[in-house]
Amino acid sequence: MDLFKNISSVINTAQEVLNSDAAKQVISAINGGGAGGNVDIASGLKAALKVGIETAAKNLGAEDGYLADAAVKIGLPKEAIATFGAVQTLSQNQAFNNILNATGVNIPTSDQVVTLFNRAAENAAPKSVDTFVGAITSMSIDDAKNILFGEDNAATTYLKNNTYNQLQGLFNPSITDSLNTIKIANFTPTQAWGTFAQYNNKLVELLDSSAVKAGLEIAKMTGVLKENHIAALSSIDLVNTNLSDYITGKALDGLFLKVSDKESDIRHNASARVSDVLQ
Questions:
Q1: Residue 36: per-residue pLDDT
Q2: pTM higher than 0.85, yes or no?
Q3: pLDDT by residue (tens digit) across 118-129?
Q4: What is the DSSP letter of 62?
Q5: Counting runs of H as helices and runs of E as strands, what totals does the chain give?
Q6: 187 bridge partner residues
Q7: Which candidate among 1, 28, 86, 174 keeps its CA 20 to 30 Å from the CA of 270?
Q8: What gap in Å lies between CA 153 and CA 173, rounded to an integer?
C-alpha cells in the first residue's frame, strides 16, 4: 500500500454522503450552515490521512520498500553512472586495467552501492509519521474542504507545502545516521561511497595527467583503445563525497511522487477506491 492509499476513505465517504438523504444537511454544513458537519468532515479526513501515512511509512520502511519499487528506488548520481559505465565498458581492456590498478583502490559494485542507498532511505521512512501527523492535526476545516473538493493533487500539495522543509530537516540526520550504521558485505553506505569517490576522483586525476593522456593517445592511434573507450573515459568526472543531501532529496522526491500518483488514481479510477479503514 502506497502513502495515502487510505485517502480513498475520504473520497468514498464524501460520495456516499452526497448520495444519501443527508446530502442537503452536509452541503449546508460545508457552506457554513452547520459547524458540526464541518468538524465531522475534517475529523474524517484527518483520521483517514493518519491511517494512510502510518501504513505507507511502515511499508516504505520495510526491507526493499524503496529498493524493489521502481517509482521510488534511489539510483546512482549521474557522475557515478558515468564511472561505473566506463569501468564496465573497459574492464576487459588490459591498458585500461593498468590505469584502474594505478588508483590503488578496489570499489564496491554498483548494485551494492544502490542497495545501501535505499536501505538508508528505508531506515528513515518511518520517522516521517510524526511530522505528517502534526501537519494533519493542524489542518483547518477549510483545508479539509479544499482537499476533498480541490484539484487532483490537493492533498499532495497541502502536505508538501506544510511538511517538506520539516521532513528535510528530519530525514537528513536520520539518513546520515543510517549511512554510518547499515552494512552490506561489511560496507556501510558511507564507506562504500567514500571508497568509490576516492577511486573515482583518483581516476579523474590520473586521466588528467600528461603521462596518461599521452599513453591514451598512443593507445588510440595503435588501436589498443577504440573511440568508444576514449569517450567512456572522457565521461568520468569528480563526484561529491557527501551523500546525505542527495539521498534525503531522492527519498523525499519518491515519497511525494507516491502521494501524487495514488491521489490521482483514487480520484479517477473507481477500482482504486478501496478503503481498509471503512471495511
A1: 54
A2: no
A3: 998 998 888 888
A4: S
A5: 13, 0
A6: 184
A7: 28
A8: 29
